[in-house]
Amino acid sequence: MTTREPSSRRGYRSPLRTSTTRRRPSPTRRASVSRWTRRGCGRDAVRSLFFVVLAILLAMHVLGVVAVAAYMYRSPGARRTLRGKALNVWTFAVFTTVSTFSSCGYMPNNENMVVFKRDTGLQLLLVPQALVGNTLFPALLSACVRAVAAATRRPELVEMTKKGRELTGYYHFLPARRCVMLAATVVGLVGVQVALLCGMEWGGALRGMGPWEKASNALFLAVNSRHTGESTIDISTLATAILVLFVLMMYLPPYTTWFPFEESSSTKGRLEESQGIRLLKSTVLSQLSYLTIAVISICITERAELKEDPLNFNLLSIVVEVVSAYGNVGFSMGYSCSRQINPDQLCTDRWTRLCWKMERFWQTHPYSCNALREAEKVQHERRESLEA
Description:
Layout: H1 27-74, H2 76-84, H3 89-101, H4 120-132, H5 137-152, H6 155-163, H7 165-168, H8 176-201, H9 211-224, H10 240-251, H11 275-283, H12 287-301, H13 303-308, H14 315-326, H15 353-357, H16 368-387
Helix pairs in contact: 1-2, 1-3, 1-4, 1-5, 1-6, 4-9, 5-6, 5-8, 8-9, 8-10, 10-14, 12-14
């Protein structure tokens, strides 16, 4: 039996010999695998973030509706108010919760929250809904993502807590340190407003209430100055300094943060702006400039009212209305017949008062005021039938 001697030629490999070492992938293959892994992790992170946000929305709405309805059933005064308005408890609870959380400010009754100025429990139930639905939503979202990541140990959630917005692209998912500073800024701004309201209006617009009711109304009004615009008192009776502070609060963006740290950005390779984009940005005015133009335009168009009815039409009331509309808040100083210098016999302090005062602007819709009056008449008849 003869044996075959191994050859001394370079590169010869015996057919009986197997290699136990694995060949390294090329740099190009490693880069493509890494990109594929990042895309897969990003898709999983977006999907997980979707379910977290959906759970927050469902939880806030369900808990809010149940809490408001439970308070209405336990409070005889609040239930009596709804009965006088011919409103169902669950209709009011659903409508108010959705409106407050979405920073809408619509109320199913005509007087906003003025009729509930002594219901401090209802006010304290709506305060967290207004906060979470606006400025504190990133803080709650970040806390929920970290809690779910710690409980489930899912890799995409853990990676999301490290990279945050860079991985998901979700605008409201802010870094943890930014969320902490955002919450501190919100608490500070609300505290300043509450202190100023209690200090200047304790015996003024808040008179006739108990100490706890005054503090609750001040907190509710301070929170709504940047959010839904729900009000328990007539803001036209507030001091001028408070109204100016409210104008500043309404002008601030929702995520305004006192942040003394530098945020690290890992974004590289940004495209340089073209000359056309730079020219377009140079011609665009600032947001404050547009607000100024709107105020000046209203002052020009309402110059007759500014002279004849200066207590209802003045520069401060116009600024409040414009900035409130810009900030999506909904605060309004309203129109009061008692502030007229030359009283009008046809003027009444009702929700249809604008139809009487601004009749010249309704020429294109001649039946609008009549429709409002008919709706009010029907509602009044319903109340009388229920009371009977």
